[in-house]
């Protein structure tokens, strides 16, 4: 599989991750991962952050330990700016909004996370802002900016709003998908960070074709 490189310097790699591929090896799966595909060329490769298997778009990789720690610190301090696009179910009423709701575990499914009533375990703070880009008949196209980086954060918060990301088999199983979309409708559009020289770098991934067809 050919993965497009969007940015590269001697320490950092930014790639355009396709939907449908795991980032890191999983005990339950033997399929090739992003890590596997780049490890041969970059033997000191380290994963900086993750995108869910179904999510496409910009993803950062560190070529060495120093770069990994440098980038991890930026994520921990929440100075990395991440922008996503999502198609969600229903017509979102407000043009803009902020979801500031802690995330815990679902009591019913170990794979799922939950905001609001019923969440279990350690509750971790999570904040997501969104802006409506286009309202369709039964769906809404959003720009989403997660301030924190919790597992499944955007998917959980949109589910909390009763506007789950479309084609999400984990958080909205059985719900209709827009014609032409057969994958989780979540795309990491851009990421902004500092490289090891102290320069601010912004990397963007073009909107997938299936998204363009739905919102045209």
Give me the secondary-structure topology.
Blueprint: E1 4-8, E2 12-17, H1 34-39, E3 46-47, E4 56-62, H2 65-76, E5 81-89, E6 96-100, E7 103-105, E8 113-115, E9 120-124, E10 127-135, E11 139-146, H3 153-160, E12 186-194, E13 200-204, H4 209-215
Parallel strand pairs: 4-12
Antiparallel strand pairs: 1-2, 2-4, 3-4, 5-11, 5-12, 6-10, 7-8, 7-9, 10-11, 12-13
Short note summarizing the structure:
With 216 residues, this protein is α+β, with helices and mostly antiparallel strands.
Keywords:
single chain; 216 residues; alpha+beta; Pseudouridine synthase; 10-stranded mixed beta sheet; 3-stranded antiparallel beta sheet; 13 strands; 35% strand
Structural domains: how many: 1
What name does CATH use for the topology?
Pseudouridine synthase
**Overall helicity:** 10-25%
The CATH superfamily is identified as Pseudouridine synthase
Name the poorly predicted regions.
none
What is the CATH architecture term?
2-Layer Sandwich
Name the beta content range. 35-45%
Shape: globular
Number of helices: 4
Mean pLDDT: 94
Q: What is the highest CATH level, the class?
A: Alpha Beta
Distance between the termini: 29 Å
Number of strands: 13
């Amino acid at each position: 599989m050919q993965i497009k490189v969007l940015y590269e310097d001697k320490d950092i790699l930014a790639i355009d991750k396709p939907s449908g591929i795991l980032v890191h090896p999983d005990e339950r799966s033997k399929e090739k991962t992003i890590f596997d595909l780049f490890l041969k060329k970059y033997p000191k490769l380290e994963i900086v952050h993750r995108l869910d298997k179904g999510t496409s778009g910009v993803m950062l990789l560190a070529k060495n330990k120093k770069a990994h720690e440098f980038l991890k610190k930026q994520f921990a301090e929440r100075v990395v700016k991440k922008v996503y696009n999502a198609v969600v179910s229903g017509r979102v009423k407000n043009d803009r909004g902020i979801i500031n709701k802690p995330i815990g575990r679902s009591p019913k499914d170990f794979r799922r996370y939950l905001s609001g009533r019923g969440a279990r375990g350690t509750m971790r703070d999570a904040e997501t802002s969104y802006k409506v880009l286009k309202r369709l008949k039964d769906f809404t196209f959003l720009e989403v900016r997660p301030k924190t980086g919790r597992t499944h954060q955007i998917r959980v918060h949109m589910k909390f709003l009763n506007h789950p990301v479309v084609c999400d088999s984990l958080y909205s199983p059985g719900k209709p998908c827009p014609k032409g979309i057969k994958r989780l409708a979540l795309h990491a559009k851009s990421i902004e960070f500092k490289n090891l020289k102290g320069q601010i770098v912004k990397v963007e991934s073009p909107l997938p074709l299936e998204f363009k067809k739905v919102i045209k």
